[in-house]
Amino acid sequence: MNLTPTVQAFVLHFGEMGSRWGINRTVGQIYALLYVSPKPLCADEIVEALGISRSNVSMSLRELQAWNLVILRHIPGDRRDFFTAPEDVWQIFRNLAEERKKREVDPTLSVLRDLLMVEPRTEEERFARTRLAEMHGLIEQVTNWYDDIKRLDTERLATLLSLGSKVTRLLDVTDKAKEKIVSMGRRRKEADKP
Amino acid sequence: MNLTPTVQAFVLHFGEMGSRWGINRTVGQIYALLYVSPKPLCADEIVEALGISRSNVSMSLRELQAWNLVILRHIPGDRRDFFTAPEDVWQIFRNLAEERKKREVDPTLSVLRDLLMVEPRTEEERFARTRLAEMHGLIEQVTNWYDDIKRLDTERLATLLSLGSKVTRLLDVTDKAKEKIVSMGRRRKEADKP
DNA sequence: CACTCCTTTCAGTAATTCCTGAAAGTTCAG
DNA sequence: CTGAACTTTCAGGAATTACTGAAAGGAGTG
User: Fold this and answer.
1) To the nearest whole angstrom, how far is the Cα of A191 from the nearest Cα of chain B?
2) Smallest CA–CA separation between A194 and chain B, in Å?
């Protein structure tokens, strides 16, 4: 590995974290390397930089493409495939969220939906069913929120994040405003009475 | 496994998904079983229900405890340890989020912080540094949001979720209101001039 | 302190996942 | 068509992770 110490540390860290993130070491390392590379890299450059086999690089790049974490590029007059990580970190974040949802949440949601179709017969089953329903409700609520939020452009998303829980204060304010409007309406109606 | 078909399907699904969620099959199955059980179970009941070794159950319960996904209970006059999943699904969700953050995000954030301390020397390093800074910025923004939001009680959290991206409309409204107030202030100031 | 009943640890094995080198596949130039 | 320059596939070995049974560790009881 002929990398600057910083890049090397970053690459190794991603390799180690890989297992916690549900990808393997090589995939993590390759992604990290591409992420900090100023220009697209071809497979052999990755082999060279990370000291792993050509076939491993090929398979790992394939996986990264499946995750939409890496983009295939071509350089005119060069037959080789070159790869980069998308530039926009927010876009990367979206892709990651989308893929994780697809792999980690959607299958469970679908199983829960199916299991909720069968009518419980025993007391035990009735209990289980309620719990499945609770889990289903929660997941659905969270994924609905996500499906809604993911369409926001980056700027709005950032605003939303930076606001954090302050949003609820805002909600309280509007609630109070609504109440006020309602009570005003009530008073006016009363005044209209003969 | 002497479980009702629904429970069995649920348990097996959690077992299969386990690997995608960064836990192993047994841990997933045990959690699923406890989640739908109307009463706390002891280790031997789990052995019996899932057909796995006693020691495996012991180790897996230990891991579930580390994740705060399972609660140790005692029944008066009984020396055995009993376990349940917390009842409140929202609390479960919080625990899960907290633990995942701790394991999957915090270490990276800390590495990024360290790497951002070293001054870049070459052009290449400068580029890498900017990218690390971008990633660091994003993660920090998201985790700050999370740290803020996680303190909300369940009711407010649910409101927030159900509102989804509508929040931004609300923001637009308040922005306009602010503008209006500012312009009103301006007009008043102008009127105050001699 | 010895017995019972339960939990945990741990070394070894089973299962799974990852990685490699060899071979086959693809694409294009001549 | 042939060969060069790449990429991909895949069988099998390497590494890692999961699981088991046996043994050891408590903790309460007579």
Assistant:
1) 29
2) 37
Residues in A closer than 8 angstroms to B158, CB to CB, are: 141
pLDDT confidence of B163, banded at 50, 70, 90? confident
Nearest chain A residue to B4 by CA: give it.
A125
Q: Identify all chain A residues contacting B6, using CB atoms and an 8 Å cutoff.
A: 115, 118, 120, 125, 128-129, 132
For residue B194, the model assigns a pLDDT of: 44
CA distance A126 to chain B (A): 10
DSSP H stretches of helix in B38-88: 43-50, 54-66
CA distances from B3 to A5, A32, A125, B45, B155 (A): 55, 45, 10, 12, 35
Scanning every strand, the nucleotide with its C1' closest to A79's CA turns out to be: D6
Output the CA angle A30-A36-A40, nearest 5 degrees.
75
> Rounded to whole angstroms, how far apart are CA atoms A121 and B83?
25
Q: What pLDDT digit, counting tens, does each position of B51-88 carry?
A: 999 999 999 999 999 999 999 999 999 999 999 999 99
Nearest CB to A167; choose among B125, B129, B167: B167
Side chain identity, residue A140: E
Beta-sheet pairing, A71-73 with B82-84: unpaired
CB atoms within 10 A of CB A3: 17
Contact A139, B48 (CB under 8 A): no
Instruction: Tell me the C-alpha distance between B68 and B95, whole Å.
Output: 6
Q: What is the DSSP string of B126-176?
A: HHHHHHHHHHHHHHHHHHHHHHHHTTS-HHHHHHHHHHTTHHHHHHHHHHH
d(CA B115, CA A7): 9
Q: Which residue is nearest to nucleotide C20 (CA to C1')?
A: A53
Report pLDDT digits (tens) over A105-142. Answer: 999 999 999 999 999 999 999 999 999 999 999 999 99
B53 touches chain A (CB under 8 A): no
Any idea which residue has 């740290």 for tokens? B147
pTM, entire model: 0.89
Reply yes or no on whether the pLDDT at A62 is more than 90.
Answer: yes
